[in-house]
From TrEMBL:
A Pfam family assignment: CinA
Organism lineage: Bacteria, Bacillati, Bacillota, Clostridia, Eubacteriales
InterPro entries the record matches: CinA-like_C (IPR036653), CinA_C (IPR008136)
Highest taxon of the lineage: Bacteria
Native source species: Candidatus Fimiplasma intestinipullorum
Protein name: CinA family protein
Domain CinA C-terminal intervals: 2-149
SUPFAM superfamilies (alphabetical): CinA-like (SSF142433)
Length: 152
C-alpha cells in the first residue's frame, strides 16, 4: 500500500474506493499513510443493496438479475465512485466473505473493479479463510492489480 500511495502522490493521481464486504478497510489502510490527503478523495462504503441503488444509482434490475456479488456490480461501483468522488482512479470491492453462500455464490468469491480515467476492468477472485482474511486478500490483490495497471 505504501508503494502505491507514494506513486499516486508523486504522479498527482486522485483515488477513491467503493467498498462493500471490505467495509472500508482499503480506505482505512491508504488513509493512514502520511501525505495521502493530497490525492485520496475519500471513500464510499455501500454495504447494503439499497444503498448501492440510492447512493451509486445502480439499478434494482441489475442487482436483482446479476446479484451484488457480480462483475456487473463491481464495474458499476468503480465507475460511479470515480464520478461521484471526481477521482481519476477508483477501486471497488464486492464479494461474499461468508460465513455462508450468498446469492448461490460461494464464500470467498469476490469481484474487484478498477476504474482508471473512465476505463474499467473487473477481476474475479476466489479466496479462502475467514471474513477478515478474505477481505485482506482482496485488498492485497486489488493493490497489486492497481500497481500493475499504473506502472504499465
Amino acid at each position: 500500500m505504501q508503494e502505491l500511495a507514494r506513486y499516486l502522490i508523486d504522479h498527482d493521481l486522485s483515488i477513491t474506493s467503493c467498498e462493500s464486504f471490505t467495509v472500508g478497510r482499503f480506505a482505512s489502510s491508504i488513509g493512514s499513510i502520511p501525505g495521502i490527503s493530497k490525492v485520496f478523495r475519500g471513500a464510499l462504503v455501500t454495504y447494503q443493496s439499497e444503498i448501492k441503488e440510492k447512493i451509486l444509482g445502480i439499478s434494482h434490475e441489475v442487482i436483482q438479475k446479476k446479484g451484488v456479488v457480480s462483475e456487473e456490480v463491481a464495474f458499476l461501483m468503480a465507475q460511479k465512485a470515480s464520478e461521484i468522488m471526481e477521482a481519476e482512479i477508483a477501486i471497488s470491492f464486492t464479494g461474499n466473505a461468508g460465513p455462508e453462500a450468498m446469492e448461490n455464490k460461494p464464500v470467498g468469491l469476490c469481484y474487484i473493479g478498477i476504474c482508471i480515467r473512465k476505463e474499467t476492468k473487473v477481476y474475479a477472485c476466489h479466496f479462502q479463510g475467514d471474513r477478515t482474511s478474505i477481505a485482506q486478500q482482496a485488498i492485497a490483490y486489488g493493490v497489486m492489480r492497481l500497481k500493475e495497471l499504473l506502472w504499465d
